[in-house]
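#lab-general

N.A. 3:47 PM
ok so I finally got the sequence cleaned up, no stray characters, all 449 residues accounted for. can someone with queue access submit it? mine expired

B.Y. 3:52 PM
send it over

N.A. 3:53 PM
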Amino acid sequence: MRLLRTALTAGAVALSGTALVVGATPASAHPMPSSVVLLDVHEDHIDAELELPVQDLGTAMDLDLVTDPELALSDDGAALREYLTAHTVLTTDGRQWSVAVEYLSLGDAEQTSTGPYQEIVAELTLTPPAGVGTRQFTLDYDAVVHQVVTHSVLVSLRQDWAAGIVEADQGRELGVIAIDNRTMTITPLPVDLDDASTWAGFLAMVALGGHHIAEGTDHLLFLLTLLLPAPLLLAGRRRWGGAASSRTTVLAITRITLAFTVGHSVTLALSALGRFDLPAQPVEALIAASILVSAVHAVRPLFPGREALVAGLFGLVHGMAFSFTLAELSLSTPQLVVSLLGFNLGIELVQLLVVAVVLPPLVLLAGTRGYPALRTVGAAVAGVAALGWLAARLGWANPVAGAADTLGGHGGWVVVALWLAAAAVLAARRLRSPAGEPAPERVRESAAS
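B.Y. 4:20 PM
back already:
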């Protein structure tokens, strides 16, 4: 949200600077922070977040909010609510919306060229009258501006599922509210969001699902770690042996990937549609534990032949974590159903892409003498990352967890390295094969890892 504010307030700050030059004394002629109004549009209401600089708000209300903002927020909370309600007016065809201030808090902020400052953050619920939609209205908002003539208010759309806006960096500016220096009037801001479609919401959720799994290092690390021993045969009860055939490997990886997909899809749908309020900490801790288990299994078999079952069971836990993203959007039931389909599709597309990119080099490298070392190193990295995450998610902050969060940024280089190693193996096989004859069949390693 702070990145969105920084990107979108540059124009508002410039407008404030112009107003200062025109109508303020030289002593005050420096950039001042603007207020920000962020709108989350839903089918039957709009959630608004107002971010108001403490100093300018105190000037407008004739209150001392600067000396002790926390005390002022407590003592003058009722006055603040009444003030914001009176200065936030929405109408559609002359019919007025209801405005409710739900929550007030104090925060730290910084805008372009203004330096750090404190702000009052107000959470409002804006509800249209019966029979009126949420996509067209006039916003008559003049908090602070009506008294501080150099102030400006940036109004932005932060979330609008029907317009395909579901992430903070997709938000767009709707307009700037400020005093017209020629007429000394504040013109209400007309808002027309009549560009909605279910298709836009669906595509946005496909993108969100893909983005979520691509940045979900822990989810992909679990799956990839579980795939490390998939190309191998079992040598004894607690040892991995040589490489399986390509067909066996592909079938094993397909079963594991499909089971993980079914598992997380089931709990994602149940958690989201049931609107269950699941505790995040134990779910995230279980995800870390799942990676640790798969890492140990990659070194020494814990559940040989039952990898698909384990992938499906742990997939149930990962699906619960996926549902947290949908819960934050506060969607209606019809939107949620469409979002489930799109979000899950995005997850599967990226997941299949990752498997498709990693599978060929794994199959080629599994028949080499260097694969046991590669498998052990990969499992060790995953295991250390899992321990760091597990400790952090149980409340013990540690640098390992922070380092593990960056693993996803190096995934591309790992894939490149796998493909280069696989290419080297193919080249070596061709050199060993007499000209004009097919390369010899891959020799399966019988030595225990």
